[in-house]
Design brief:
This protein has 313 residues and is α+β, with helices and mostly antiparallel strands. Helices cover 20% and strands 38% of the residues. Helix 5 links the parallel strand 13 and strand 14. It is globular. Bound molecules: pyrrole-2-carboxylate.
């Protein structure tokens, strides 16, 4: 018998999010972190079926909508990608907010959304415009050197923005859409060098997002290139990556509380970020972006299909 999985596809500044709205695995009750554990251990085939080829691609980020643990929240969500699971996902949260609006589950205003790394707020401003208030973000190490064999020594900041990032200060690369292969290779090698040299986030957590910065093409405050865990690059300016950037700007005294930082992506899409200082260098980032629904469909899992659960790498 076929399994049917209902999904809504959105994109946020060009970065796709496929939201499971029906037919997903039964992850039981509890926090999103507990349910993520069950997803990973017992139902990982659903992740692969939804985001991997032949239905998806390396760039696809998935999200599963869940009943929240706290009835005061609008929903719970777990994000995943071609290689595993994400603690938080900024572009994905903006996409989920627009999908919830499309389903008639939320209206304009602020709503609480539970994620595996804590609750975030989504504010639906207009049909496609959403501001998220992300989890607390902070830098744990600044100007860390990393020697990348065959390239050079890079220096960067290890920062939490809902995922672990290495924000590179110094590089010789041109941030342009026609240079993406090279940018992917360089950032991938930086990531490998971090792993070899055991540069990690807190509690030995792997740094699985690498971020390069350069001047904006369109007169904004900066442009980035963000390498995601499965070697795809973020088409959006990356919500958790922009949160990490805001944490570094705040720690360096380079952006005042409440001032707007306009972060352009490698393909020219835009997020606007602000922050509120919590204590010391810990901040609460707010990220504003737009997302659009671009599909609504039923995925079919046919037991006779050898690739029914996706092509796993
Ligand atoms: O927007 O936070 C984000 C994100 C993480 C990975 C891809 N996008």
């Amino acid at each position: 018998m076929f399994e049917r999985i209902g999904v809504i596809d959105t994109h946020t500044g060009g970065e796709p999010t496929r939201v499971i709205v029906s037919g997903g695995p039964d992850l039981g009750a509890g926090s999103m972190a507990d349910r993520l554990g069950r997803f990973r251990e017992r139902f990982d085939r659903y992740r692969s079926a939804v985001v991997n080829e032949p239905r998806g691609s390396d760039v696809m980020v998935g999200a599963i909508l869940l009943e929240p643990a706290d009835p005061a929240s609008a929903a719970g969500v777990i994000f995943f990608n071609n290689v595993g699971y994400l603690g938080m996902c900024g572009h994905g949260t903006i996409g989920v907010a627009v999908a919830l609006d499309h389903l008639g589950k939320i209206g304009p205003g602020a709503h609480r959304l539970e994620t595996p790394v804590g609750a975030v707020t989504i504010e639906l401003e207009a049909k496609n415009a959403v501001t998220i208030e992300n989890v607390v973000s902070y830098r744990i190490a600044s100007n860390v050197p990393v020697v990348v064999p065959g390239l050079r020594t890079y220096h960067g900041d290890v920062t939490w923005g809902g995922n672990w990032f290495f924000l590179v200060h110094d590089h010789d690369e041109t941030l342009a859409a026609d240079n993406i292969e090279r940018l992917t290779e360089v950032t991938w090698r930086i990531r490998q060098a971090l792993e070899t040299n055991r540069v990690t986030g807190e509690a030995g957590a792997e740094i699985d997002h690498i971020e390069l910065f350069g001047p904006s093409t369109h007169g904004h405050d900066g442009k980035n290139f963000v390498l995601c865990p499965g070697r795809a690059y973020d088409r959006s300016p990356c919500g958790t990556g922009t949160s990490a950037k805001l944490a570094c700007l705040a720690a360096d005294g380079a952006l005042n509380e409440g001032a707007v930082w306009r972060q352009e992506s490698i393909i020219g899409s835009l997020f606007e970020g602000t922050y509120r200082r919590l204590d010391g260098d810990r901040i609460v980032p707010r990220i504003r972006g737009t997302a659009y629904v671009c599909g609504e469909s039923t995925l079919i899992v046919d037991p006779a299909d050898p690739f029914a659960w996706g092509i796993r790498s």
